[in-house]
Specification:
Blueprint: H1 2-27, H2 40-53, H3 57-74, H4 79-103, H5 110-134, H6 142-145, H7 161-187, H8 196-222
């Protein structure tokens, strides 16, 4: 029950934050002046319009074109299909895992569990391949590494979007590896049976953090900024 509450609140919080930032940007005047105050009525109307436009053909076409442009740059040739398979694996794993964890008391079982296990193995292989392919593009430079040395101030200030993307990438990668490790340990006869609940708990919360990181990364990378 606690995990369900945390999952719902975390997802709603991240979605509200990202959409509220985009609503604020859409309301900022072009001239150098104070940004207008946040208006709940305006935000609700704006969010409803954005949600409606998400299901329109033109939006789907633009999303497909953006995917083609992005993969042509970072995943050329057959690498594009590996990336697409990775995305589909993660979508199934997140969808099936969180649906059963939140709405089904006994958890995932049956054919969805079989698919979860099979695609989990494929996810592990694809994650390793993509890390080998893209890790160098997300390495921190000297200026960005200095941010981590400011231990007296845990809140990062004046950081670039590129730096945030790198943090999100490595957050997803780290907790993706934790997902793989906890899944393997739960299936191998290494740990005692009473360790299973702890492994499942780590698996769930690692999945939640990875999902939140993926949501923010996709929002920052693929969704264009709203026009004022």
């Amino acid at each position: 029950m606690l995990f369900t509450i945390i999952t719902i609140l975390a997802l709603l919080g991240v979605l509200f934050r990202q959409t509220a930032l985009r609503y604020r940007d859409s309301q900022t005047p072009a001239a150098d002046g104070p940004a207008p105050k946040f208006a709940w009525n305006g935000y609700g109307a704006w969010l409803a319009a954005r949600a409606k436009s998400a299901f329109q053909f033109d939006t789907v076409r633009k999303a497909g074109a953006e995917f083609e442009r992005w993969t042509a740059r970072y995943y050329p040739g057959w690498m594009k299909w590996l990336f697409a398979a990775f995305v589909l694996c993660f979508l199934y794993l997140a969808g099936s895992g969180f649906f059963f964890a939140v709405f089904i008391a006994r958890g995932i079982y049956g054919l969805p569990l079989v698919g979860h296990v099979v695609l989990g193995g494929l996810f592990a292989v694809l994650l390793a391949a993509l890390l080998l392919w893209r890790a160098r593009d997300y390495r921190f430079d000297e200026r960005e590494e200095a941010v981590f040395e400011r231990v007296a101030c845990p809140v990062f200030k004046n950081v670039s979007k590129a730096f945030v993307r790198k943090l999100l990438f490595w957050t997803f990668a780290f907790f993706g590896l934790v997902l793989i490790l906890t899944a393997l340990l739960s299936m191998l006869p290494i740990l005692p049976a009473d360790a299973q609940p702890t492994l499942i708990l780590f698996h769930k919360y690692s999945a939640l953090i990875a999902l939140l990181a993926a949501v923010v990364f996709v929002d920052m990378t693929f969704i264009p900024a709203p026009r004022p």
